[in-house]
Amino acid sequence: MKKASFIFMLALALFCMPVWAQPGKKALVGFYNLENLFDTINDPNKNDEQFLPQGDYQWTSERYHNKLENLSIVIEELMKMDGGMVVLGLSEVENENVLLDLAATKRLKPYNLKVCHHDSPDRRGVDVSFFYDPVRFRIIDTAAFPLVVPDQPEFISRDQWLMTGILDNSDTLYILVNHWPSKAGGERRSLPGRLAAGNLSRQISDRIQQQHPGAKFILMGDLNDNPNSKAIMECLGTKTNTKNLTYKDLYNPMWKLFHDGIGSYAYRDSWEMLDNMIVSGALVNARPGTYKFVSAHVFRKDFMFTKTGSYRGYPLRTFAGGNYQGGYSDHLPVYIILSK
Questions:
Q1: Residue 54: CB partners within 8 Å, gap ≥ 6?
Q2: Distance CA 47, CA 287 (A)
Q3: Dihedral, CA of residue 71, residue 76, residue 79 and residue 82, to nearest 10
Q4: Hey, which of 105, 181, 297, 300 would disulfide with 193, CB 3.0 to 4.6 Å?
């Protein structure tokens, strides 16, 4: 009787525990480049002329709402995954309003996603932001870090946007979302921008670890470089495996995926891993009973790909070669799984 009573009481206790506190709880943290999510309203402070009804892309309300609908399909799939998407970093968004519109779509409204947005000085007017689940993630601080490129005082790009919050009332996460400078103008000309971005991200990570030793840090974003690039491996100083990681080391699990031929962006009939999820050693080797890094993934569904033509097998994007495709994005989402 005593044994039976003990088992009953244990089962009752587990049943009554908050969902986030139950053993084996998962949480997904991801990133998605939305490919130019612009509204149809002219902003005199931004270079958004292409994305106006009379602009080059004939960006009408119909096309804008079709874009919102398509993105909501992908993000809903992420939200429904085992563990649930708790934080989703975003890039190529014009302003906070477009994300509020996206969160209010029929598919995403039930999730009550909140927006953590920062207006960057980018000349094209695209920013980095976050969606997050307010039930499971509570923001305690945010900070923006401008990118300065040595010997290029006129250089302007997206700020790096840091969101600090508490996951499931237990783990503090420091999450940095990035959109590093592109390769426009060629590799040699554009490289200093990404090297500076890598150095800045590393400085942010080191500062967090100095102030909070053992901090669980996640760096995400479209880094416009593959995991084996100089900016990521040398400036950011990432490790390619988990052996002998210290708490302040940065581990890039996307390196293995890229090495195996998996990518998030297709270019000239090959896959590149421009979208990265990088974690601190403290998240890999987390204490028992707290959230730790488990694995990294690229999110792929058949409906997200072009089925015919010269772009067959590529992500079905909104525009290709300047022509309207009515798709989702030219990038695939990436995400990591955390588990207790």
A1: none
A2: 47
A3: -120
A4: 181
Token output for 65: 């709402």
CA 152/CA 258 separation, integer angstroms: 32
Domains and CATH numbers, the chain: 22-339 (3.60.10.10)
What single string gives the DSSP state of each residue in 95-151?
-HHHHHHHHTSTTTGGGT-EEEE-----TT--EEEEEE-TTTEEEEEEEEE----TT
Please report the DSSP string for 154-174 in residue order. Answer: T---PPEEEEEEEETTTEEEE
Phi, psi of 333 (to 5 degrees): -70, 155
| CB of 280 closer than 8 Å to CB of 248 | yes
Q: CA angle 190-223-274, nearest 5°?
A: 105
Length of the chain: 340
Question: Of 258, 254, 261, which is closest to residue 295 (Cα–Cα)?
Answer: 254
Q: What is the pLDDT of residues 81-119, one digit of tens each?
A: 999 999 999 999 999 999 999 999 999 999 999 999 999
